[in-house]
Amino acid sequence: MDRETRVFAENHFRGLRGRLPSRVYPPLDRVDFIEKPDSFTYADFFKGYLLPNVPCVFSSAFTEGWGCRKHWVTPSGKPDFDYLLQNYGDVIVPVANCGIQEYNSNPKEHMPLRDYISYWKEFIQGDYSSPRGCLYLKDWHLCRDFSADGVFTLPVYFSSDWLNEYWDFLDVDDYRFIYMGPTGTWSPFHADIFRSFSWSVNICGRKKWLFFPPGQEEALRDCHGSLPYDVTTPALLDSHLHPMHQHCSPPLEVTQEAGEMVFVPSGWHHQVHNLDDTISINHNWVNGCNVANMWHFLQQELCAVQQEVSEWRDSMPDWHNHCQVIMRSCSGINFEEFYHFLKVIAKRRLLVLAKEASPGEAESGEDAGLGPQQATFDVGRIAEVLASVVVHPDFQRLDTSEFSPQPEDLLQQLEEVVAATTSL
């Protein structure tokens, strides 16, 4: 990030005065297509799409050199099953059954990749039908099982990725996934975890995306307040079941071709269909542009848990702590871990700035691709969100005596850095 982009971003968030960006989006009739890598900078993406939180599609030229596009695909553009079997056949992968609805998702099983590819071949031979149903390999953590070297190169536009930086630091998980499946596999209507951004590259095949900007999903709720499983179902036209549907604009539809890269903004609900036999790489990521969205989402999740178990409030000892435990089991994170998430990113950014101030010091913890302007911006965003966290009544109920540093002390340190760098 250069200085001009940092100042532009800080002015953007200063204008919000601590509020979330507007949930009212101007009508979009198309998604921008970015053609040439050489003429599209990180600043262009940051100011044109990341801050406004709108989708875009990058051409296949951006992924032309990726190893997976050369090795995972046959000359005819189909999945190279032989290569995948030879290199990954024994890996255990998660597989969802697209034909079975389980709440607003699909049930999953685990199997060796070679068994899934055997099923896939039979599915094709059976004219894209099988007694086993329509199975979709989803959420395979390839980067956890193997090195990504030679497979793909992280695009610079998505390099400020706090979510995977945090989980890599803990060395326990990540939010980098491989999806693969035959024509007809699909992902039900959803918004991405923690209201993260995501990016998705088709290694081969095509996808159809149906996008709804934040707020539009409210008009899709049924009379019980539930979101739909499938936004293409005719049931949505039933005004008794979906009384608000008439107020919902048509989805923004995108067809993603092989090699192309889709940027999915924070909080945009979407549904995705594979139009061909398709393999894709997908990452979820959070940074200073949407960390406030993540915090807002976590507050909503806690409120939902508290409402669900409200009848036990007076009779359950330590009810508030139990709500945090339930929240973590349902959402993957609670208020305590969110603080540690902010702390880890903050400490790493402070190290970057310390090294900038004193060359030769603070070598550890620096992300080689992170510059001081980006670090300065990040510190400001963490400080603003942390200021909201420390005064939240449910955070104040946590036992933070063992936290190091104490939340208030970390906030003070960050605010001092922000004050010192405002004029830089």
What does this structure look like?
Helices cover about 35% and strands about 15% of the residues. With about 425 residues, it is α+β, with helices and mostly antiparallel strands. The protein has 2 domains: about 25-285, Jelly Rolls, CATH 2.60.120; about 290-420, no CATH class. Strands 1-2-11-8-13-6-5-3-4 form a 9-stranded mixed sheet. Strands 7-12-9-10 form a 4-stranded antiparallel sheet, with no helix packed on it. Helix 2 (about 40-50) links the parallel strand 1 and strand 2 (about 55-60). Helix 8 packs across helix 9 (about 320-330) and helix 11 crosses helix 13. The chain starts with a helix and ends with a helix. Residues about 360-370 have low confidence and may be disordered.
Write the SSE topology.
Blueprint lengths: L2 H14 L15 E3 L7 H9 L5 E3 L8 H5 L9 H8 L3 E6 L10 E5 H13 L9 E6 L1 H4 L16 H9 L5 E6 L4 E5 L6 E8 L2 E6 L39 E5 L4 E4 L4 E6 L3 E8 L5 H18 L10 H13 L3 H23 L14 H19 L2 H4 L10 H15 L3
Parallel strand pairs: 1-2
Antiparallel strand pairs: 2-11, 3-4, 3-5, 5-6, 6-13, 7-12, 8-11, 8-13, 9-10, 9-12
CATH class of the largest domain: Mainly Beta
Describe the biggest sheet?
9 strands, mixed
Radius of gyration: 22 Å
Low-confidence stretches: 361-368
Please identify, by name, the CATH architecture of the largest domain.
Answer: Sandwich
Sheet/helix structural class: alpha+beta
CATH superfamily of the largest domain: Cupin
Tally of extended strands? 13
- How are the strands ordered across the major sheet? 1-2-11-8-13-6-5-3-4
Order of helices and strands: HEHEHHEEHEHHEEEEEEEEHHHHHH
Mean pLDDT across residues: 93
Count the domains. Answer: 2
Distance between the termini: 14 Å
- Helix residue percentage: 25-40%
Strand content: 15-25%
The CATH topology of the largest domain turns out to be Jelly Rolls
Number of helices: 13
Please state the overall shape, judged from the principal axes of the Cα atoms.
globular
